[in-house]
Automatic annotation (TrEMBL):
This is Cytidine deaminase. Substrate binds at N55, I56, E57, N58, A59, S60, Y61. One of its GO terms (molecular function) is cytidine deaminase activity. The keyword Zinc applies. Zn(2+) binds at C66, C99, C102. It comes from [Candida] arabinofermentans NRRL YB-2248. The keyword Kinase does not apply. One of its GO terms (cellular component) is cytosol.
Amino acid sequence: MTINLADDPRISDEQYLTLKSKALESRNLSYSPYSKFRVGCTILTETDEYIVGANIENASYGAAICAERTAIVKAATSGFMKFKALAVSTDLETCASPCGICRQVIREFSNDKQLPVYMFNKDGSKVIKMTIDELLPLSFGPEDLGMVTN
Ligand SMILES: [Zn+2]
């Protein structure tokens, strides 16, 4: 069996490369004058749309929103509730992972908890792939409130 670039049979090599380049490019959308810590996020939806986001800071620091949640809010309000993959990037040499709040929000839109999350370093030369179940084990989700999702 051939392993594709995404290490996920649902994601073609072309889609993976597009997801990666958009995740890296989306850092340019960051509004981070305080931390100077740019984060980009791109979601590949189940219907093969790409939704980009970036972290948006605020003079009232607590009002900042992460790149992952920016992208998820854009996707959800555009009618895309099912995702095939999510990718993030920062300007670090190493790969950075989504914060705890974002893991919970990502989990909301990963019904089988197997959504792949790709974490790219600054130039995309390094990547870590983990599922949301690995990033947020024993997570609380819609099923726990009796919601039937699929
Ligand atoms: Zn976050």
